[in-house]
Task: structure prediction
Amino acid sequence: MSCLVLIGCASMIFLNIDSLLNRIEEENVVMVYIEDGTTDEDITVMGTQLQAMDNIKEVEFIAKEDAWEEQLATMEEAQREFFTEISSDIPLPDAYKVTVDDLSLFDGTINEIRQMGHIETIRENKDLAKKLVTIRHGIEVISVVIIAVLLAISVFIISNTIKLTVYSRKLEIQIMKSVGATNSFVRLPFVVEGMILGIVSGVISLGIVWGFYEFAVNQFSDLLKSLGLEALKFQGYALSMLGAFVVIGIVTGVGGALISMGRYLNKEGSEISAI
Result:
């Protein structure tokens, strides 16, 4: 149960970090600026070509009039009057805002976009994309290592616990073997015990992780709001986590029982008394 609680807490931390990375990746857009004088038909064709690319998640057309209005809105009144009075021309090109789906394929996608016609320039942040990919891979490796270590600890703990149970019941096992009980018959109660302990620990662990998570979210709610972040809702992961906990509990419980019983069931009759 302790190991499952640690796995659950670590999983929720990694899920929130992954959600944050997804938000950052969505902000890492590519701006494709269109040459002046490009016809509306050619602009539409460009949009169709961008949407047809494999690694493109979203394509949004930004008209230069809208972009200029947004730019003026960020200026002070005197600056707005200066730029509007000095010329009626809009000093910005039309553009497409492109969101890349998989940042690990970022370079290939940019090269594919560059092959299109009527492009004045492309603004992209290759360095940020590479850093995000590195961070994501690092988190994936760390999460796998932590979960694997905790699973190994769980099997070790359960195995040793069942060894103590076997030792305390060695006389009973010796008698069962002496009267001809099969290994499967002797092993079954311990396997069932490990399975039941795994299921119970999985259910209880879910409740503990849920309580810890809600407590942590409440404690850091002000900090998250100040940073413009929002924690994931635990309810959306409760059912899948319960299923994972129960499966892990059963596998580790049964696995621990089989491992601990293996060495003893290879001995026949009175040899078990030497345990």
In short: The radius of gyration is 31 Å.
